[in-house]
Amino acid sequence: MKKETLDIKTVCECNRCLGSKTLHPQVTIINLAHPDLKQETVKFEFYTVLLIEECGDDCSCCGRKYYDYSHASMVFLKPGEIFAMSEAGVLPDKGWLLAFHPDLLYRTSLRNHIGNYTFFSYRKEEALHLSQRETATVTCCLENIEEELHHAIDTHTGTILSRHIELLLDYCTRFYERQFITRENRNKVILEKMEALLDAYITSGRLQSGELPTAEYCAERLGLSVAYFNDLVKWETGKTLEECFRCKRLEVSKKMLLQEGNSPLFVSQRLGFPNVQYFSFIFKKLTGVSPHDYRYTHN
Predict the structure, then answer these.
(1) Gap between the Cα atoms of 47 and 80, Å rounded
(2) Residue 215 — left, alpha, or beta (φ > 0 → left; ψ -120 to 50 → alpha)?
(3) Between 273 and which of 55, 187, 195, 279 could a Cys-Cys bridge form, CB atoms 3.0 to 4.6 Å apart?
(4) What CA–CA distance (Å, rounded) separates 217 from 245?
(5) Shortest CA distance to 250 belongs to which of 268, 232, 274?
(6) How far apart are CA 159 and CA 92, in angstroms?
(7) Per-residue model confidence (pLDDT) at position 54
(8) 233: Cα separation from own chain's centroid
(9) Which residues contact 73 (CB under 8 A, 6 or more apart)?
């Protein structure tokens, strides 16, 4: 049976549905004390930030584990995303919701780099889990936004609100980076699984068709969103997936060249290079020697 979705198109409509006053038509902060929604899912047609203060001891629906902070959690939704907290309720029983329409960002600095906050494309299970001090910082940012909402709207309102929101998002970027640090051991397990995926991809022979592994391919098999996977790989390795695979393909090509009967042409075809000339060019650029010279000097 198809789930019934509440499609909330505007900030004003969001306030009406959740029993809050509209102080600005493009921004709102709503107390989520026992939201009464009959639908099974909700779709916000604007940016939404959820500060979840209570969602159970393990918060499994938001991906919290024993190695995460447990004072509060945050989920970030881009416009048009469908959300459900759990089967027990669409929204958390306690917390805050910040909603802001993309039009608010018109002629503001935030409009130019809102896409840099990649956590808006994370899954709910990849939520940000906060310490008590981090929660206090986030709450302070929300309070500053709410204070500005109670000010009479003037020519400065949009700029000031967007800067408060930008500051909040910058803090969340810092806290997500901290979370990557506290999840270091788990992240290394994910990288090991990624390495195994890439190894299996190479040995499968799929490279011969010129089809390289993508972030979508890896993320799906690791149970992660593409955005979270890309950020995790970049944080842990300093490289993109493409750069990681380039290094791996080079190392594999070295091993293959040293195996009897493997010519540079065979290796280039097996590893998905467009032709042997391009393979030789890349190999020499990265190693300083041609494939032929490498085989000669290492055999």
Answers:
(1) 8
(2) alpha
(3) 279
(4) 13
(5) 268
(6) 30
(7) 73
(8) 11
(9) 51, 52, 55, 59, 62, 64, 127, 128, 129, 130
Torsion, Cα 283 285 288 292, to 10 degrees, reads 30
> What pLDDT, on the 0 to 100 scale, is given for residue 55?
62
Rounded to 10°, the helix 241-257/226-237 angle is 60
Q: How far apart are CA 193 and CA 136, in angstroms?
A: 36
The answer to whether 183 and 67 have CB atoms below 8 angstroms apart is: yes
Helical axes 184-203 vs 215-222, angle rounded to 10°: 120
Instruction: Give the per-residue pLDDT at 100.
Output: 98
Neighbours of 272 (CB within 10 A): 19
At what angle are helices 226-237 and 215-222 packed, to 10 degrees? Answer: 100
CA distance 188 to 263: 35
Write out residues in the chain with pLDDT < 50, as ranges.
1, 57-58
Structure tokens at 150: 């109670």
CB 54 within 8 A of CB 94: yes
Tell which residue, 15, 23, 72, has the closest CA to residue 44.
15
Which residue(s) pair with 41 in the sheet? 5
pLDDT at 35: 67
Whose structure tokens read 């085989």? 295
